[in-house]
Amino acid sequence: MLMRFTCHVAGCLALAALLVAVAGCPKKKAAETDAGFPADTAKAAKSEAEPTAAVEAKLAQADLLDGKADKIVTRCASCALRMNGTSDHTLKVLDYTLYFCTERGAKTFAEDTTKAVLALEIPEG
Ligand SMILES: [Zn+2]
């Protein structure tokens, strides 16, 4: 009777330990995976897509300064869009061609195009 009782308890403990081992590990692994790469990847993709849309919106405004929505920004972005650039010094940004008044202006602008475009203030008229 005593022997049988002891075996029963030991069996229960072994079974409980086995359940914890089996149920515990995979659950912990899944939680680690959830908190890891997928969220970071989504965040990175989002932050890459947003500036592009903002750059495009800014270029569309700059494009209209010469009165034509032809995807050619004839105003020199290096001169805060207040001077006319020339077709001798151009820079392609997305679908737009930007005209600059000097080669140096175009090169400086090209160093960090996204930042430079976003920093542009569209002048009135
Ligand atoms: Zn200029």
User: How many strand units?
Assistant: 3
Small ligands present: zinc ion
Trace the largest sheet across and list its strands.
1-3-2
Q: Look at the helices and sheets and give the structural class.
A: alpha+beta
The end-to-end span amounts to 100 Å
Number of helices: 4
Helix content: 55-70%
Number of domains: 2
What is the averaged pLDDT score? 79
> Based on CA inertia axes, which overall geometry fits?
globular
Largest sheet: 3 strands, mixed
- Seen as an oligomer or otherwise, the chain set is single chain
What is Rg? Answer: 31 Å
Helix and strand sequence: HHEEEHH
Strand content: 5-15%
Detail the poorly predicted runs: none
What does it look like?
- This protein has 125 residues and is an alpha+beta fold.
- The chain folds into 2 domains: 1-35; 41-125, no CATH class.
- Helix content is 62%, strand content 12%.
- It is built from 4 helices and 3 strands.
- The chain has helices spanning 2-35, 37-63, 103-111, 113-119, and strands at residues 72-73, 86-93, 96-100.
- The chain has a 3-stranded mixed beta sheet.
- The chain is globular and about 30 Å long.
- It starts with a helix and ends in a 6-residue tail after the last helix.
- Bound molecules: zinc ion.
- Zinc ion is lined by residues 76, 78-79, 83, 100-102, 105.
List its salient traits.
125 residues, alpha+beta, 4 helices, globular, binds zinc ion
Provide a quick synopsis of the model.
The chain has 125 residues and is of the alpha+beta class. The chain has 4 helices and 3 strands, in the order H-H-E-E-E-H-H.
What is the element layout, followed by pairings?
Blueprint (H helix, E strand, L loop, with lengths): L1 H34 L1 H27 L8 E2 L12 E8 L2 E5 L2 H9 L1 H7 L6
Parallel strand pairs: 1-3
Antiparallel strand pairs: 2-3
The structure holds zinc ion.
